[in-house]
C-alpha cells in the first residue's frame, strides 16, 4: 500500500440491499457539462492523433516499476503505443511543479487523491467521463471507489491499483488450535473472542505506531476504520471533507470507543507505551513467536512483507486473515478502508486515451499480480493470477465489500492528515490529552 511514508464476507438481507442502492445513487455518471475541467466535451477517437508515445509519471520504482512495465508489454505490442515511465520518489512536489511550468506528463499515477484534487481544482486534469465509459468502469469496480475520487461532481482519476486496509491477521495454526472463531460478524463478537484469548493467558492484540516523523499514522487508520463502521460512509465523507467539524460528537465518540480497545487492560501487548515505541513494521512479529505472544494485528495487505521470512515463504499455511467486522448498531454493511493509485490524464489524444482505457480495465495488471504486492480494484479481475491463496482471499474480502473509502488522512489537507491528526493520536494514546481535547485542537488548526 502506498502510505504517506513515501510522501497508507458480504452482508446480506433487505437492509443491506437498500444501503447498496443508496450508495449506487451517489455514483451516477456525472454531467459532463458541469464541474471544473480541462475540457468538458466527450472525446471521440480520431479527434486528436497521438505521437506514438505516452509519457507517464509515478511514485513507484524498483521491482514495482518492473512489474508495471511488464504489465504494459502486451498493450504496447497490440496498440503500437510506447509508454515512457518515469519514477519519482518526490512525486507530489514534482507533479505540481511540472504542471505549473507547462511540462505535465501525459498521464500521472497519483498515490493519494489529495494532490490530484489540487490540480483538478485548477482545471489541469481531464475528467474521466470525457474519455472513459463511466458506467462500465463503475460496474466492475469495488463499490465506492470512484466516489472516493470525486470532486465537485466529477471524477478525475481512474483506479489502477488498490490497497486493502481493513484486515485482521492471525497465526493460523495456533489460532485454530485455540479453537477461536475466524468469522466474527461484528466488532462486538470479535471483542468476545479476544476475551477468550485473554482467558487462555494470551494477549489478543499487537500494535505498533512508531514511524519516525510519521509516528501516529497507524492510529489515524484505527479512527477511520471505526468511523466507517460506527457512523457509515456518508458521515465518514462529511468528516474527511470537513463538511462537519473534526470535533463533532460522533468523532469524539469514536476516539472513546477506540480507547476502550487499545487502552483496556490486557488488550494490547505491552500496553500504550509499547504501541508508541514499536515500529509498525514489527507489530506482526509477536504473532509468529513460539508460542505466540499475541493473536491479532490490524493492518493493510502490505503488512505481509514484514512477516518473518519463513512465514512469507508459506503464507497460505502460516497466516489467516479476515475482514475487520462491522459495528453492531452501526453501518449495515461491510465497508473497506483502503488506498490506491489513481491514473489521471493531462494530455487528451488517441494514444493517451488508449493507455488510460487499458490502465483502468480489469485486464490490466496480470504480471504485476503474479509478482506479488499488487491488487486490482476490479471485482472482475482474474484472481487466479494472484501468487497465493492469502492474496486471493484478501481480494475476495475487498470485492465483497458494500463500500470502499479512501484513507481519510490521505484526503484531508496535509497539515491535518499528515500533521495534527498524527501528532494528536500520539498525545491521545499517551494520555496527555483526552478525546475531546485532541479533536478540538485538530479542528482549531484545520486550514481555512
Q: Could you name the key traits of this structure?
A:
single chain; 448 residues; alpha/beta; D-Maltodextrin-Binding Protein, domain 2; four-stranded mixed sheet; globular; signal; Bact_solute-bd_prot1; TAT_signal
Structure write-up:
Keywords: Signal, Transport. This is ABC transporter substrate-binding protein. It comes from Brachybacterium rhamnosum. Belongs to the bacterial solute-binding protein 1 family. The chain is an alpha/beta fold. The chain has two domains: 181 residues, D-Maltodextrin-Binding Protein, domain 2 (3-Layer(aba) Sandwich), CATH 3.40.190.10; 201 residues, Periplasmic binding protein-like II (D-Maltodextrin-Binding Protein, domain 2, 3-Layer(aba) Sandwich). Helix content is 41%, strand content 12%. It is built from 19 helices and 14 strands. The strands form four sheets. Strands 2-1-3-13-6 form a five-stranded mixed beta sheet, with helices on both faces. Strand 4 and strand 5 form a beta hairpin. Helix 9 runs antiparallel to helix 10 and helix 18 runs antiparallel to helix 19. The relative contact order is 0.19. The N terminus is likely disordered.
Amino acid at each position: 500500500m502506498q502510505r504517506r511514508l513515501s510522501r497508507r464476507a458480504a452482508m446480506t438481507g433487505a437492509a443491506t440491499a437498500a444501503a447498496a442502492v443508496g450508495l449506487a445513487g451517489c455514483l451516477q455518471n456525472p454531467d459532463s457539462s458541469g464541474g471544473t475541467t480541462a475540457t468538458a466535451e466527450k472525446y471521440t477517437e480520431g479527434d486528436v492523433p497521438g505521437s506514438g508515445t505516452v509519457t507517464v509519471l509515478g511514485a513507484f520504482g524498483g521491482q514495482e516499476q518492473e512489474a508495471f512495465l511488464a504489465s504494459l508489454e502486451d498493450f504496447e505490442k497490440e496498440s503500437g503505443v510506447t509508454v515512457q515511465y518515469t519514477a519519482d520518489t518526490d512525486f507530489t512536489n514534482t507533479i505540481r511543479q511540472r504542471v505549473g511550468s507547462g511540462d505535465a506528463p501525459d498521464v500521472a499515477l497519483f498515490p493519494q487523491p489529495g494532490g490530484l484534487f489540487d490540480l483538478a481544482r485548477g482545471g489541469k486534469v481531464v475528467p474521466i467521463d470525457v474519455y472513459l465509459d463511466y458506467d462500465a468502469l463503475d460496474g466492475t469496480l469495488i463499490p465506492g471507489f470512484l466516489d472516493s475520487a470525486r470532486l465537485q461532481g466529477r471524477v478525475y482519476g481512474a483506479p489502477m491499483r488498490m490497497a486493502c486496509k481493513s484486515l485482521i491477521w492471525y497465526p493460523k495454526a495456533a489460532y485454530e488450535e485455540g479453537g477461536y472463531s475466524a468469522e466474527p460478524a461484528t466488532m462486538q463478537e470479535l471483542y468476545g473472542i479476544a476475551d477468550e484469548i485473554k482467558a487462555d493467558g494470551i494477549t489478543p492484540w499487537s500494535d505498533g505506531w512508531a514511524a519516525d516523523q510519521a509516528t501516529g499514522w497507524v492510529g489515524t487508520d484505527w479512527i477511520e476504520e471505526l468511523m466507517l463502521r460506527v457512523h457509515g460512509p456518508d458521515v465518514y465523507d462529511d468528516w474527511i471533507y470537513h463538511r462537519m467539524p473534526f470535533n463533532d460528537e460522533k468523532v469524539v465518540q469514536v476516539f472513546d470507543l477506540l480507547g476502550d480497545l487499545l487502552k483496556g487492560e490486557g488488550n494490547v501487548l505491552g500496553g500504550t507505551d509499547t504501541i508508541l515505541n514499536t515500529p509498525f513494521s514489527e507489530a506482526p512479529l509477536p504473532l509468529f513467536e513460539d508460542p505466540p505472544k499475541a493473536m491479532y494485528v490490524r493492518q493493510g495487505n502490505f503488512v505481509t512483507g514484514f512477516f518473518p521470512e519463513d512465514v512469507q515463504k508459506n503464507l497460505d499455511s502460516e497466516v489467516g486473515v479476515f475482514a475487520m467486522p462491522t459495528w453492531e448498531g452501526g453501518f449495515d454493511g461491510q465497508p473497506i478502508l483502503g488506498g490506491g493509485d489513481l491514473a489521471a490524464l493531462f494530455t487528451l489524444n488517441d494514444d493517451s486515451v488508449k493507455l488510460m482505457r487499458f490502465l483502468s480495465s480489469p485486464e490490466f495488471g496480470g504480471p504485476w499480480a503474479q509478482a506479488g504486492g499488487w491488487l486490482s480494484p476490479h471485482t472482475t479481475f482474474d484472481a487466479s493470477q494472484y501468487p497465493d491463496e492469502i492474496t486471493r482471499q484478501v481480494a475476495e474480502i475487498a470485492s465483497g465489500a458494500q463500500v470502499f473509502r479512501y484513507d481519510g488522512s490521505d484526503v484531508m489537507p496535509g497539515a491535518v492528515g499528515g500533521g495534527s491528526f498524527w501528532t494528536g493520536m500520539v498525545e491521545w494514546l499517551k494520555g496527555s490529552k483526552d478525546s475531546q481535547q485532541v479533536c478540538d485542537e485538530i479542528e482549531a488548526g484545520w486550514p481555512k
